[in-house]
Design goal:
Pfam families: DUF543. It is a single-pass membrane protein. By secondary structure, the protein is mainly alpha-helical. The chain has a domain of 58 residues. It is built from 2 helices and no strands. Helix 1 runs antiparallel to helix 2. 10% of the residues are buried.
Length: 99
């Protein structure tokens, strides 16, 4: 009975991992495509040079992949990727004996 329960838990975690990868792949493709289209539209609207337009498309694609990476890392790890904030300590000003 314990062996069946252990196999069931292993089976669920395998399917859960597959579901996470599927969700991550779907999210990455959608954000890449939508951000590239937004970059294309912005490039056509604001820039005249083909190089600037391609740069706008590349920037949009990078934003899409970056945001998908952040969401996927949170999906797998359970916490968002954050930069560590500097720790601020409050220290009293030195007293020189003058008031």
């Amino acid at each position: 009975m314990a062996a069946e329960k252990n196999n069931q838990i292993v089976g669920q975690s395998k399917y859960d991992l597959d579901a996470k990868w599927d969700a991550c792949l779907d999210l990455t493709v959608r954000r890449f495509v939508y951000s590239s289209l937004a970059g294309t539209f912005g490039g056509l609207l604001f820039f005249r040079s083909p190089v600037s337009r391609w740069a706008s498309v590349a920037f949009g694609a990078g934003v899409g992949i970056g945001s998908a990476y952040t969401e996927c890392s949170r999906l797998f790890d359970g916490s968002p990727a954050k930069l560590a904030a500097p720790k601020v300590t409050e220290t009293p000003a030195p007293q020189d004996g003058q008031d």
